[in-house]
Specification:
The complex is a heterodimer.
Chain A: E1 6-10, H1 12-18, H2 20-29, E2 34-38, E3 40-41, E4 76-77, H3 107-117, E5 121-128, E6 145-147, E7 153-157, H4 162-178, E8 184-189, H5 194-199, H6 211-219, H7 224-242, H8 251-261, H9 263-290, E9 295-301, H10 306-311, E10 323-328, H11 330-342, H12 355-366, H13 376-382, H14 388-400, E11 406-411, H15 426-434, E12 444-447, H16 455-471, H17 477-486
Chain B: E1 5-8, H1 10-16, H2 18-26, E2 32-35, H3 95-105, E3 109-110, E4 113-115, E5 128-130, E6 136-140, H4 145-161, E7 166-170, H5 176-181, H6 192-200, H7 205-222, H8 232-243, H9 246-272, E8 277-282, H10 291-296, H11 299-302, E9 308-311, H12 315-331, H13 341-351, H14 373-381
Parallel strand pairs in B: 1-2, 2-3, 4-7, 7-8, 8-9
Antiparallel strand pairs in B: 5-6
Helix pairs in contact in B: 1-2, 4-9, 7-8, 7-9
The chains are: A alpha/beta, B alpha/beta.
């Protein structure tokens, strides 16, 4: 049984604000058979940007969006949690606020029931974020955030911290157990690594130098003092580069020298990244233990930064999930690449390369098949050529292997630059999905959020997908793998589950 | 005192005659002689490519490989033998004794020179380095106590046996990362002494082994027709370092092993002659060609025990050499294979921290205005040279050999993808007239 053919990402308040029934009918009428529904939104906790306070933000799709916000849309858990279960770890979730009209209701349950009536399946979607993520706003979290060299914190949790792991284990297990209708728990992490962030991304100070990580490092034979020294020099180099002070020897030369002189830099990065890479295993084990019949899915990111792409090793997903979704934002990737190369790289160590060289190197790194690179202006305006999706998907499918069915996560109607709405042409969607005809995906997940995605784009994806299935003469390896992965599990699952809220959540071991 | 030195093959002292040779050198204001104490044989180059103004042409008979006398007593009890002059012209000559008085009269100082690829005695197989799977490598392991003791004895013998002002040591070998990624060979070392040091440093030996084997597999795939795994060279390599940071730790350990030996050499010399000037030869790969070797060449760490450093820049031939190196080594199934010539050069420039460099086509200058080895060789050998390629032409990335591409430039043999280990000297690629330091070595 296929967990979905055409699914869409959504967050509960989007559906509620539009009216649950009309919103779900809108989706079902356009061939959507599943929703990847956010269980928690810890992106956006904190101050709201000015544009989002408008009655109808410009990012919303004009053809189905509500005319006003739904209260409490920012930053909370949409599923119910039992706070007493989290008392031991001392880390808690945010529930509905004092004035939230959904206070006392289980809106996730309401959506599940309404979806079930329409034959729409629900997948729990949990995304660990970066950037606007403000996990420091959660109760008790200031103690488990990543630490910088000077002992300060950044607003993301340290995944090596046993308390964070246990909190997440409980969260995943309780979500799976409390909502037995859930098809799967779908997990993704939008996070780089300390080396990546210091050198290439946000110019963040190095992390995580919390006591937990330092003890872990000693256990693995890495000297924390040397790592601190190396990262301090690395950070200084990047800061000076951003301020326009090119070191006499050249920034990239110094970078390579630091990497050779301080192998602890990469060792620390590996250690910190290891904590991140262990999270899916924790989630999967928790979900399985709570509900053996619940599927587990993972996001495979298609990155627009070469260094970030190196971090995203798709082969790690192999065998770790019942399915994976390759998330491709092709329609805005071109514009993002242009911005990265022209603006963000300007103050980075890569600024020593000419702009043309930066473009070419980034393009080659991201597309080793070496397709012709469109002119930057065309990339900025039209996005990646839609034909690239086929090549990227084939590469990802080869990496995750046939034992993990791969779905295409097609980004459509994504605002860029924020909050400027960018409607994806139906022809682009048809062309992009059409390139998958020789290697059809198990299904398509429309990314980013329901409130942004237009009905026209959903219809285009649905018809392209139908054409894809029709045109496919052979059963794809993905479909075969999917059947094998789900054989004997979902067949036994009842269509209408009893609304059990008393399932036992496994205790911490 | 400002050092104005010149390297010289010791055979030149005898070919030209010591007085004539030193008079010639003195005219250039040279105040320090760096003759080979061991090694430094004839280059086998045709006379046409050698400096024409010495008045005496060098001979062609193979020469001996040891030019000084070592004290056997200092090598007693060591596993490695005392250097003995091998057969060849000038066997039994003592160049330091020959030079001592004539040099003193001219106010010249003596810094005998040794490159670490010497010696090739079979006894040295017991101090060979080992690859990650335990198989022996041609190179020697810095950390082997017997090798360290042997070098200490060599230096002690020199400073006890002669009135020297200094000593000049060089190693034309890059670390394991370069060996694997640039030279396409196996790299290490994983001998018992390196393993012990790795354990002392807390490096996970098994993970380091796994990382090196993965790196070697990557390098092999990089040099294959199809290239490395589907993600291309850059991403795959970065990912490999991220996954196996122990590789970098092990490479660092190797580098520090070399620094430790250099420090021991300096301390041994200064224990006998405290004012001895100890300098280090830094080969051109670590200054111009190999970004990994350059990154590893940590001048700051060397200053603590050094009197001077001699980084080889060879500016006048750097362009053609780099052109050949990039074409054959980096672009053609090497680290820059995905980039192509222009982008590869631009990337290389940034990795080495250079200011913008001229485009390829300007590197050699007009063919008529710049004599090439190809032309000189042809003149010397009486053979007709193949037609010169158009200036600025470069083979497309992925072409298999320069000879297969009619437009490819002449690539000096020394800078082709190495088939012989770098410790086997090969002929120089160009004359060095006009350099401060006379090039009598392959370096």
């Amino acid at each position: 049984m296929n967990p979905f053919r055409l699914s869409i990402q959504a967050t509960p308040p989007q559906l509620l604000a539009e009216g649950l029934g009309p919103a779900l009918d809108f989706l079902a009428a356009r061939g959507v058979d599943a929703i990847h529904l956010s269980t928690h939104t810890y992106y956006g906790v904190g101050p709201e940007p000015e544009w989002s306070r408008q009655p109808v933000p410009p990012t919303w799709s004009p053809d189905h969006s509500p005319r006003s916000h739904y209260p409490g849309r920012h930053g909370r858990a949409w599923v119910r949690h039992e706070p007493s279960r989290f008392r031991d770890v001392g880390l808690f979730h945010i529930g509905p606020g004092e004035n939230d009209p959904t206070r006392g209701r289980d809106i996730f349950r309401e959506i599940l029931d309404a979806a079930s009536e329409r034959g729409l399946r629900i997948h729990a979607r949990y995304l660990d974020g970066w950037g606007t993520c403000r996990q420091d706003a959660l109760p008790g979290w200031d103690e488990v955030l990543v630490r910088t060299l000077d002992g300060g914190t950044l607003p993301i949790p340290c995944f090596a911290n046993p308390r964070v792991r246990e909190w997440f284990r409980l969260t995943a297990a309780e979500t799976a157990a409390n909502y037995p209708e859930l098809e799967s728990f779908f997990y993704g992490i939008e996070r780089g690594s300390t080396f990546n962030d210091v050198v290439f991304q946000h110019g963040q100070p190095p992390y995580c130098f919390c006591p937990c990580c330092e003890n872990r490092a000693r256990h693995f034979g890495i000297d924390p003092l040397r790592a601190r020294e190396g990262y301090a020099r690395l950070h200084r180099l990047c800061c000076e580069s951003r301020s326009g002070n090119r070191p006499p020897d050249g920034g990239l030369t110094i970078l390579s020298r630091l990497l050779v002189q301080y192998p602890e830099i990469m060792a620390w990065d590996h250690l910190e990244r290891g904590g991140v890479e262990e999270m899916p295993g924790i989630a999967r084990a928790a979900v399985r233990e709570a509900r053996p019949d619940c599927g587990f899915g993972l996001i495979a990111h298609q990155c627009i930064d070469p260094h970030r792409a190196a971090l995203e090793d798709w082969s790690l997903i192999r065998g770790q999930a019942d399915y994976a979704v390759l998330r491709c934002y092709g329609h805005i990737n071109g514009a993002r690449l242009v911005h990265n190369v022209r603006e963000r790289a300007r103050g980075s160590l890569w600024a020593e390369l000419s702009e043309a060289a930066r473009f070419e190197i980034a393009w080659l790194a991201l597309h080793p098949e070496n397709p012709p690179m469109p002119p930057p202006e065309q990339l900025d305006e039209e996005g990646d050529p839609p034909e690239l999706l086929g090549a990227i998907f084939r590469r990802a499918a080869a990496a995750v292997g046939t034992e993990t069915p791969l779905f295409a996560g097609l980004g459509v109607d994504i605002s860029y630059p924020f909050p400027e709405r960018r409607q994806t042409p139906a022809s682009y969607i048809h062309s992009a999905l059409g390139t998958l005809k020789h290697h059809p995906p198990a299904g398509v997940l429309l990314c980013r959020e329901y409130c942004e995605i237009s009905g026209a784009s959903i219809e285009a994806a649905s018809s392209a997908l139908a054409g894809l299935k029709k045109g496919s003469q052979v059963q794809s390896p993905q479909s075969a793998a999917l059947q094998a992965a789900y054989a004997g599990r979902h067949d036994k699952a009842p269509i209408n589950h009893p609304k059990s809220r008393n399932l036992k959540v496994p205790r911490s071991r | 005192m400002r050092l104005a030195g010149i390297q010289l093959g010791s055979y030149s002292v005898y070919d030209e005659g010591v007085e004539r040779c030193l008079d010639h050198i003195a005219q250039a204001g040279v105040n320090t002689l760096l003759p080979y104490a061991v090694g430094g044989g004839r280059m086998g180059l045709p006379s046409a490519v050698l400096a024409p103004d010495h008045g005496v042409m060098p001979g062609e008979t193979p020469v001996t490989d040891v030019w000084v006398r070592f004290d056997p007593a200092l090598f007693r009890g060591l596993a490695l033998p005392c250097p003995q002059p091998g057969p060849g012209q000038y066997q039994g000559e003592d160049v330091l004794e020959t030079l001592a008085e004539p040099a003193r009269r001219r106010g010249m100082r003596l810094h005998p020179r040794i490159l670490a690829h010497y010696p090739k005695d079979p006894a040295f197989s017991q101090v060979r380095a080992h690859a990650a799977d335990g198989s022996p490598l041609p190179a020697k392991c810095w950390r082997h106590p017997e090798l360290q003791a042997w070098w200490a004895a060599v230096v002690e013998s020199l400073f006890r046996g002669y009135d020297l002002h200094g000593f000049h040591f060089g190693d034309e070998r890059a670390g394991p990362l370069s060996e694997i990624l640039v030279w396409g060979r196996r790299g290490g070392c994983f001998c018992e002494h390196c393993q012990a040091e790795g354990r002392r440093r807390g490096i996970d030996l098994e993970r380091a082994r796994t990382g090196f084997l993965a790196l070697e597999a990557f390098a092999k795939s990089m040099r294959s027709q199809t290239g490395p795994a589907s993600d291309g060279v850059g991403l795959s390599l970065l990912r490999l370092f991220m996954k196996h940071p122990e590789v970098l730790s092990w490479d660092r350990m190797w580098i520090e092993g070399r620094f430790a030996l250099e420090r021991r050499i300096a301390e041994t010399a200064r224990a006998i002659r405290p004012e001895a000037e100890i300098g280090w030869h830094i080969w051109q790969y670590a200054t111009t060609f190999d970004p990994l070797a350059k990154a590893a060449q940590d001048y700051g760490s060397m200053t603590a025990y050094s009197s001077y450093l001699k980084p080889v820049v060879y500016h006048d031939i750097a362009g053609p050499r780099l052109r050949g190196m990039l074409t054959e080594g980096f672009l053609n199934q090497g680290l820059y294979r995905d980039l192509g010539p222009d982008l590869g050069l631009e990337f290389h420039r940034c990795l080495l921290g250079w200011e913008p460099v001229p485009a390829w086509r300007n590197w050699s200058g007009p063919a008529s205005a710049r004599p090439t080895l190809r032309g000189k060789w042809a003149a010397a050998s009486g053979k007709s040279a193949p037609p010169a390629p158009p200036a600025g032409s470069m083979p497309a990335s992925g072409s298999t050999s320069p000879s297969a591409t009619p437009t490819s430039p002449a690539i000096p043999k020394h800078f082709r993808k190495p088939s012989a280990p770098p410790w086997e000297p090969e002929p120089m690629a160009s004359s060095c007239a006009g350099n401060t330091t006379k090039c009598a070595s392959p370096t």
